[in-house]
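Lecture notes, continued. The same structure-token format from the folding unit now serves as the input rather than the output. Read the line below as a description of shape only.
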């Protein structure tokens, strides 16, 4: 199924050369933002945030305002008709008829794709549950490209909640499209990377290993991407408590890192990077957060000035088959058409990437 609008649901809705162009444009905007201050005059961006957000929401809003456009939307669904029981289809249908571009964050996986099915304007996925977060990845790529001058041949450590961290999933998918990166996946056995992402890494020119110790891994890294344990994705406080505070980057551990190590974090940080690390020149997470504005300005311009269709589904409905992922949007919004693509005796849900063994 093809949508006539240019959505960004997953980064692979765009080609690698388009990511590179967005990053180059973001660098140009950063050098001379005044040149772009009227490019979106008269345009409206709708922001639908069903989940808490500081950086993503405000950097999108800042980006649109700095381009000369305006914003509408909500950051708390309880103050919108969602509190009265309105479904995702109706909310997105209506807001997309008011706005020229819509940015959505939602706790359920596959929600951005579901919204794109009926939207009357382009949709940008600002995080769908623990699944994907493509615009954080654009921010990460811009920061890495500035700091390292390349997105290839890097040894990248990713540490923390690799299972539920949507920023990790999108970043690994993206970096695996560049040549010869090596990923050191640092987590407890309980919070390892989902196997569908490992399959993507295995099919790429990149290699990866899974380890437990941050301290042992640090010396070989060019990049360390720290992440928060995603409390809101755990089914009990007990399970969360068993995972929190396992990995803490402090000055002592950082002493073992290369002199040109780049330390990133999508933020918010809880306790996984101690405050005294902030003074170290290798701590680049605040630069990374600020880059979010420039890369989102570049993304908004790219989407609005180059309209083109987006393929939403490759597969088909399989009679009687439903997604088994409880956090998949298709299990909440029952009217949604299910769609699966086949892989041997396994089907893959096209909303959330869950595998279903037949
Ligand atoms: C991340 C997110 O929402 O996934 N934050 C962000 O967008 N910068 C990371 C997180 O919440 O841990």
């Amino acid at each position: 199924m093809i949508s006539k609008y240019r959505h960004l649901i997953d980064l692979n809705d765009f080609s690698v050369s388009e990511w590179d162009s967005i990053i180059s444009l973001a660098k140009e905007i950063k050098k001379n933002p005044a040149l772009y201050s009227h490019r979106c005059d008269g345009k409206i961006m709708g922001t639908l945030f069903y989940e808490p957000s500081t950086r993503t929401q405000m950097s999108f809003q800042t980006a649109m305002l700095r381009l000369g456009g305006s914003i509408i939307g909500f950051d708390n669904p309880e103050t919108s008709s969602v509190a009265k029981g309105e479904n995702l289809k109706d909310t997105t249908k209506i807001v997309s008829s008011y706005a020229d571009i819509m940015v959505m964050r939602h706790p359920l996986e596959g929600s951005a794709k579901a919204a794109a099915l009926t939207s009357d304007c382009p949709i940008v996925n600002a995080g769908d549950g623990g699944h994907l977060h493509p615009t954080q990845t654009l921010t990460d790529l811009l920061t890495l490209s500035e700091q390292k001058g390349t997105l290839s041949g890097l040894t990248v450590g990713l540490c923390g909640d690799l299972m539920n961290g949507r920023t990790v999933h999108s970043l690994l998918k993206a970096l695996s499209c560049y040549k010869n990166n090596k990923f050191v996946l640092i987590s407890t056995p309980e919070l390892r990377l989902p196997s569908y992402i490992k399959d993507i890494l295995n099919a790429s020119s990149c290699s990866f290993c899974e380890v437990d110790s941050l301290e042992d891994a640090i010396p070989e890294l060019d990049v360390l991407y720290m992440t928060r344990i995603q409390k809101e994705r755990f089914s009990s406080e007990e399970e969360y408590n068993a995972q929190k505070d396992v990995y803490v980057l402090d000055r002592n551990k950082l002493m073992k890192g290369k002199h040109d190590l780049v330390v990133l974090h999508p933020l918010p940080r809880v306790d996984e990077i101690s405050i005294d690390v902030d003074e170290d020149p290798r701590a680049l997470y605040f630069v990374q957060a600020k880059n979010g504005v420039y890369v989102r300005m570049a993304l908004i311009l790219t989407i609005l000035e180059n309209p083109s269709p987006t393929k939403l589904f490759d597969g088909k409905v399989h009679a009687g088959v439903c997604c088994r992922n409880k956090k998949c949007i298709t299990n909440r919004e029952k009217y949604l058409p299910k769609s699966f693509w086949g892989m041997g005796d396994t089907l893959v849900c096209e909303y959330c990437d869950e595998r279903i063994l037949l």
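Point for the exam: The first strand starts at residue 2 and ends at 3.
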